[in-house]
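Input.
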Amino acid sequence: MKRRIRKVVNFFAFNLLFFALYLNFIHKDKAAVAVVPATVQTTNTASLSNTILVSNPEKYLNPKTTATSTTPVQQVSTTTKAEQNAALKLSIN
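Output.
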C-alpha cells in the first residue's frame, strides 16, 4: 500500500514541477505583454532602424579644438590630522 501511495505522490509532484516550469518559461502573462501606443511605434530611431546622419559632423569629429580649456580647481583639504586619526580609530574598532 505504501508503494502505491508513493507512486501517486511522485506523479503529482512531477506534474506540479512541470506545471511550474511551464508557467515560468513558456506561459506569457497578459500584464507582462504591454501594448505600445501607436505614436511610439511609428517613430524611427537609430536603435530601431538604420543609422541617422549627423547634420554638422565637424562638431563631433574634433571636440578638442572646439572645447574651451579650463584647469580644474584643486580643493584644499580642511580636515586636520587629529580628525583623520579619530576617523581611522573609529573604523578599526
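The CA atoms of residues 52 and 66 lie 23 Å apart.
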